Amino acid sequence: MNKINLSTKLILLFLLTAVAIIILFGMSAGSGFKKHFQDSLDPHLYQYFSYINSEIGSPPDLNKAQQLSESLNIKIILKGNHINWSSGNSVSEFGEHLLPPQPDKNNRYTSNIQRGRYVIRIPNSTHQATFITRHERELPPPWALFSNTLLGLFFVLGLLYLVLHWMISPLKLIQAGISRIGSGELDYRIRITRQDEMGSLATEINKMADDIDNMLAAKQQLLLAISHELRSPITRSKVALSLMEDSPMKDGLKGDIDEMEKLVTDLLDAERLNHRHQQLHYSQVTINQLIEQTIEQSFPNEPIEQALATNVPTQSLDETRFQFVIKNLLENALTYRKQASDTIIINTKKTEQWVYITVEDHGNGIEEKHIPHLTEPFYRVDPSRQRETGGYGLGLYIIKMIVEAHQGELTIESTVNIGTKVIIKLPC
User: Fold this and answer.
1) Is this model's pTM higher than 0.90 or not?
2) Which contiguous run of DSSP H or E holds residue 320?
3) Which of 385, 389, 397 is CA-nearest to residue 269?
4) What is the mean pLDDT of residues 240-261?
5) CATH code of domain 197-274
6) pLDDT for the residue numbered 100
7) Which of the residues 91, 216, 282, 346 could staple to 316 if both were Cys, CB 3.0 to 4.6 A apart?
8) CB-side exposure of 256: number of CA atoms within 13 Å?
């Protein structure tokens, strides 16, 4: 389910708040206006219409009433025992559909407000006079008032949205920056365009990235220095070992020293590849050529089936490093096969944009929980780290570094008791 972003939540909150304010304001303003009108203006309007009523007289002068109605722009209704008169239109149009007027405190008159009209009724000895104001100026219908209010509300909310969008827009830059830094781009820094809290947050994240970058660089330098320093005692040990007489002990020591030398070499190679300024020595070769050369040199008698596409193009690759990739993948597949006679399959395929290399075995497979960690340095499925069950967990890590240095991708698929498939994807 898609999450609602912060700006949408804020807009919804302001929209609900605005609707509630409009409703409350309309109710309070309407009742307050009516109360104010009755308390403050009612007596003045009564005095005004009393003068008009006295001008009409009792019994009423209908001609005078018609004159006053036209000149003052009011509607006059006169009702009595022998009178049922209205200025202009019929009496029923105004008399029957008006709300009952409310009497004043002294019962001198009754008054009310309806549909924007002020209605006042003043009793006389011979008749009852009703005066209605604004009889030709109707208030807009409710739907028109509602639509105008909504238009104004949406206009204000639109401005509010633009302001809110500007206020929280750095959050997207910060989120994208954190994602890139978290994915390994430690040299990436968030662009700071504001001097408010958002700018301070971006500044702190950039400082955190600097600290992490410096810490990892120090770790890398330490590991490289130690690895370099280990080469000297290993070399001296090999020289001393060559002076010893042949014996099972000498063979055992030689195996251990060779293993240490390989570990140091792998560590150095891995850290060089992991460095942002890694050096690759490119040459124009095809993957098929590298596969054939590697198998011929290292696995001439192994049951390896080659299914190589004929349309694989020439690419710029570091030949030595990619031979290391192919050799290690084949060694892993041969090591973990169920029987020595099981065939390993290596194939290539070309699409419009990519060249694929796949190495597949039919071994014991790997549990799904281990697959995401196989390319981590020193990670081993077998925690005992016995020599018979594999190396030191650097092989796939180095392979991943080499592939990514060539802007490629490494994918591992495996099913327990069925086998493992390693797929390398390189851009054409």
Assistant:
1) no
2) helix 319-335
3) 397
4) 80
5) 1.10.287.130
6) 54
7) 282
8) 8
